[in-house]
Amino acid sequence: EEVGRIYSQSRIVFNCSIAGDVTMRVFEGTACGALVLTDVVANGLEELFAVGREIVTYRDDEDLMEKIAYYLAHEEECEAIARAGQQRTLREHTYLHRMQRLTEILSRPEFRPLAPMRAASPEERWRARRVVYVHLHMLDALLDEARDRGSNPIQRAWAIMPALLRRLIL
């Protein structure tokens, strides 16, 4: 609620992606009617919004500062982009839209064969789970146990050797 209230009171919402991703701030800011100013990312942002008409991007700190000054001085243009971004978000980018799209994709027939365990017998499922569990957790459990006994790294490696060899040989 607090984020929504702050974004709704803001003319510009600044976003800087952490890993080149489109963050929730982009959708939250536009949904609240603010102009979202985000860094240029090559991850599909252009498929979600019309850059320059519904959202604005910046290249670096200098470009960011210039665009903030520009849009604060050109209030009508700022509001027009913010309004267009809000309309786009409410029309296409709500949680309901995402869930409908996800359901649509997962309902396609080609997704059924990608989960072969759905058709497996209970016994086959149990065996598969056991294999995965053993491979993923056996060595971790042995290492934790050796560490808890106060073993040094060499002793820990020696403690897992039988299980490791058994996995490699069998």
Largest sheet: 3 strands, parallel
The 3D shape can be described as elongated
> What low-confidence regions span 5 or more consecutive residues with pLDDT below 50?
none
The chain-level mean pLDDT equals 87
The first-to-last residue Cα distance is 56 Å
Describe, in short, the structure shown.
With 170 residues, this protein is mainly α. It has helices at residues 2-9, 24-31, 45-48, 61-73, 75-92, 95-106, 122-148, 153-169; strands spanning 12-15, 35-39, 56-58.
Describe it for me?
The longest helix is centred in the C-terminal third of the chain and has 27 residues, at 122-148. The mean pLDDT is 87. Helix content is 63%, strand content 7%. It is mainly alpha-helical and 170 residues long. It has 2 domains: 2-110, Rossmann fold (3-Layer(aba) Sandwich); 115-169, no CATH class. Helix 3 links the parallel strand 2 (35-39) and strand 3.
Q: What is this structure's SSE topology?
A:
Layout: H1 2-9, E1 12-15, H2 24-31, E2 35-39, H3 45-48, E3 56-58, H4 61-73, H5 75-92, H6 95-106, H7 122-148, H8 153-169
Parallel strand pairs: 1-2, 2-3
Helix pairs in contact: 2-5, 7-8
What are the defining features of this structure?
single chain; 170 residues; mainly alpha; Rossmann fold; 8 helices; 3 strands
